[in-house]
């Protein structure tokens, strides 16, 4: 079986005629390419072999096909193999910025079932200059799409991949390389079902995303031959879909992975309330996220499929099937401006259908982030002009955590209203990145934080 998307689709796939994206889609894609352009060079060296029984030689079949049986402990390595980075240069202490290893590890999904998840660990060549042992950042990628070829671990090898009908952009590579330059080890999760060929990616599923990120940190700590030690501090980092996963992981960690020495979590533009996010996404340049959400929730809760089938017309079923194998570039160019009301038998939008269907309301309500309390400091940052992942619901997450007694630093990113939802959402990813990375690095170095919950709770 190859590593292309062989998941069980929500609707039977049919040939799709793609329509060209507008100026908005092209602008965002161009921005994403710029963000990682410095990384899009041919690899000049391969990562070193991982040691130990879990190692699997490169080329020995499809790495992304999960085995029939999975280990019991969460975070246990299933297999590893060396991988190449899209940019790798020779250095005195080894390849720059570091040596990469592809991972497959065990996690637990939102139904309580075992699941195999893939990702990548990068051991930096740079020395950690802070006090104590080398720290680790577990990075949750932003929206990559739903096809297996879109996985973040694959984007580390090919930052810009165009072919076979897919357009994948590794825009998270910039943050990864910046952490590596600071001597911080990085582990990246591909999430449940993204990369692995056994199921559809459960996009924005709160528990799946949080567990996959925490178990990636466990897997990195279990990988032989790294400079990590049991006391290495760990931080979480994510924006957009990644911000939701980072926020979920931060509040799940005390109960799910208490052994992790969690120093802090950066939670950027988190989709904490999916009801509001669906309204923001509908008709936007990233309208494909509606399809990825529907496909993912049907994967996690098959009982929703009859409801989805009853509401989706032929155009909607075709769109869901198409999006289940597409990357973020496909979503922008193929579905920018699409409205969910065009996909339904009733002419209702998805938010309107959710309002009418108690089962759907319960499913989305269960995805609400902010009802548990992180033990570690968190930095919630969101663009005040963000209407795609609405600013108000992200700010409310910060307030919810504050009320529960968490240490929260809230950062409203002002900037300029560029009058386009997707651009307003994407811009803070870059404009706030230096501050976010510095905040995370300070927590890893043991520097005290200055939470501002009094301000967050006081303001409307």
From TrEMBL:
It comes from the Bacteria. Gene3D superfamilies: 1.10.260.130, alpha/beta hydrolase. It holds the Pfam family LIP. InterPro entries: AB_hydrolase_fold, Lipase_secreted. Transmembrane segments: none annotated. It comes from Streptomyces koyangensis. This is Triacylglycerol lipase.
